[in-house]
Amino acid sequence: METKQTEPVTIISLRKLSLETPETQPKESKTFTVEDAVETIGFGRFHIALFLIMGSTGVVEAMEIMLIAVVSPVIRCEWQLENWQVALVTTMVFFGYMVFSILFGLLADRYGRWKILLISFLWGAYFSLLTSFSPSYIWFVFLRTMVGCGVSGHAQGLIIKTEFLPTKYRGYMLPLSQVFWLAGSLLIIGLASVVIPTIGWRWLIRIASIPGIILILAFKFIPESARFNVSTGNTQAALATLQRIAKMNRSVMPEGKLVEPILEKRGRFADLLDAKYLRTTLQIWVIWLGISFAYYGVILASAELLERDLVCGSRSESEAESEVAVTLPDTEESHSPCHCHMFAPSDYRTMIISTIGEIALNPFNILGINFLGRRLSLSITMGCTALFFLLLNICTSSAGLTGFLFMLRALVAANFNTIYVYTAEVYPTMMRALGMGTSGSLCRIGAMVAPFISQVLMSASFLGALCLFSSVCVVCAISAFTLPIETKGRALQQIK
């Protein structure tokens, strides 16, 4: 009886073993995503080359934008322009930027970041050269508007950098790109101080076009974004790009097969206003608009303060006498309310010093972004920007004015650094370029309004203009502090 009782148990246990054994035999094949590959490969020589080439797009963009500030006094004099006409030049440049920023963002999410970046540089270089042959004010405005359209596509360089950088390096490498904007700003101011008094503003524009043309040749060394390729189903191209990066960095690829979902619907405006991102998008738009308004307000106000002596004690009598006065013939044009006030050497020095301020807070900005987070860091710098705008109203010496402008440039540059990083990180790949494009477009609305405050309202009511700039910065500080998503240490999202 005992034998009969134990035998069924033995049979059952064998059956259990036979049933369990097949379940453990199949092995699942390993897979990885682009995010896994980027993190595994790590930071290396490819990223240094990427940083230098894509970062140099900031040099070209800064030269084209800052060109307006240094050329304004010359064209005001040459074509007998009134204040609103000078302001209109800058406004139309940013109008072109605003319209095409959305268009290029839409196309970049659908057809690729690299293609749009190349097209924007070819467009910008072509119309920039044509600007130097402008026969009249109307032609100058039109051609600079076309340049603004081209420059709007340069933001794709930042997106390519963002999508290739490992998570822990984004908070350090992206803010360092400010160095290139600084280099471009200093280069155009330095060139203007030498070229304009000798061979004229037209040659300044031609020389300023050279870096953009050279950079076009360097784009062939940078591949299309691997994240974009997998989103379109072009997995082989993405894999080849990642393998090339791993080889260049002397690193290894993760084991397994590259697998990512194909995103059929990319670059749709409806996604930006989806319930998940609606509040984030609206607050980002407010912040971009305000930061741009303050940034270009500072740049144009700096030139205006120096050109028109709007702040008491900003220039000594001896320096004022060194201004070049242009005497017009006794015609109807000679009765124009416009007066020619060309920049003196000391003015160029002040512009250079204040521009260097853009890099002054960069180390603190990087620390703030990585330790305090994107939102808190941005709210602090925006609050300080509001304060320093009001301090400009203090009656001070030339050195004091330079100091205030130095700090303002440092703060507004830090604001731009942080919002660029945040916007590139917060949106998923399927709408990242469109998110940057629409933000850049709203940004240019602020830039379009800034000239009329810095170059028109400031002449009528200096304190009123400063209070307006300060108030906008306070609104942006509050909006930054209440952003719903913090992107510090967050992996880039592929889909919503």
From TrEMBL:
The chain crosses the membrane at residues 48-74, 86-108, 179-196, 282-306, 460-483. Coiled coil: none annotated. This is SVOP like. It is a multi-pass membrane protein. Keywords: Membrane, Transmembrane, Transmembrane helix, Transport. It comes from Ursus americanus. Pfam families: MFS_1, Sugar_tr. PROSITE patterns: MFS. It comes from the Eukaryota. One of its GO terms (cellular component) is membrane. It is found in: Endomembrane system. Its main location: membrane. Residues 50-488 form the Major facilitator superfamily (MFS) profile domain. The keyword Transcription does not apply. Gene3D superfamilies: MFS general substrate transporter like domains (1.20.1250.20). InterPro entries: MFS, MFS_dom, MFS_sugar_transport-like, MFS_trans_sf. GO terms for molecular function: transmembrane transporter activity. Belongs to the major facilitator superfamily. SUPFAM superfamilies: MFS general substrate transporter.
